[in-house]
Design goal:
Pfam families: DUF1272
Largest sheet: 3 strands, antiparallel
Number of helices: 2
Order of helices and strands: EEHEH
Organism: Aquibium oceanicum
Shape: elongated
Protein name: DUF1272 domain-containing protein
Number of domains: 1
CATH architecture: 2-Layer Sandwich
Distance between the termini: 34 Å
């Protein structure tokens, strides 16, 4: 089951479970659409995989299967693939 992480790993923007602009890779690394497109070029900086729109869990299912509250943030920041973060 998807973790539904609560924030963008790059900019720390809140991404609630129903955020239509949350993007994930196959390892559930989570980014906002702006960082995914403008900073990362659609590629996860952690695994090199593609980023796709995160599915939205129906509200009724969130009661039984809540979203994660653990925030993940890249301490070194994010940079486009192949370049180090500033």
């Amino acid at each position: 089951m998807l973790e539904l992480r609560p924030n963008c790993e790059c900019c720390d923007r809140d991404l609630p479970p129903d955020a239509p602009d949350a993007m994930i890779c196959t390892f559930e690394c989570t980014f906002c659409a702006a960082c995914a497109a403008d900073v990362l070029g659609g590629t996860c900086p952690n695994c090199g995989g593609g980023l796709v729109t995160r599915p939205i869990r129906p509200a009724k299912m969130l009661e039984r299967f809540p979203a994660s509250t653990k925030r993940v943030l890249k301490a070194e920041g994010c940079a486009p693939p192949g370049r180090k973060a500033a």
